Amino acid sequence: MTAFANATIKKQANIYFDGKVTSRTITLNDGSVVTLGIMLPGEYEFGTEKPEFMEITSGELSVQLPGIDDWVAVTSGQSFNVPGEAKFRLKVSTVTDYCCSYLD
Amino acid sequence: MTAFANATIKKQANIYFDGKVTSRTITLNDGSVVTLGIMLPGEYEFGTEKPEFMEITSGELSVQLPGIDDWVAVTSGQSFNVPGEAKFRLKVSTVTDYCCSYLD
Question: What is its EC number (chains A, B) (predicted)?
């Protein structure tokens, strides 16, 4: 899927880490929510409420998922899941364009 | 307006200046196109094809419009027009969230 049709896009961006991570909140036709975001190179820690499904549209990074010491490399076209109510860490190597879906 | 409803948003971001300027392309219900973007602090030069209407959702910057030497300060809630087929320059002081409309 290259675009989301019949969607509602919040005009105001979500801005984190002094603008090094930013995203747009989109409500899809079925009522579900995704964010389309950009991460600049750097190391970040995020916390989830709902479980999340992260799709990497472009970029290179590695992820340390909750409860796991190893860092896993992730690149364009790949994805990973993060459980809800958890923290995860990212080391972003190149500008990364992502789509995050929030799972019920 | 705080959101665009019934719109189509391209999944892939537009990425410029090594990620310091990024945007999302949105086609509105009436077929017109806007981009929602983020600019990190820095100095940039852009070129227009169609005339553009730039709305600053948040942030502080100054703009040098085509053919004008003076820099004009622009901040959250303000906007400016840029003629088509022209270059303009921006000095972005704080992370800036913008909406750019392309005028026919």
Answer: 2.4.2.1, 2.4.2.2
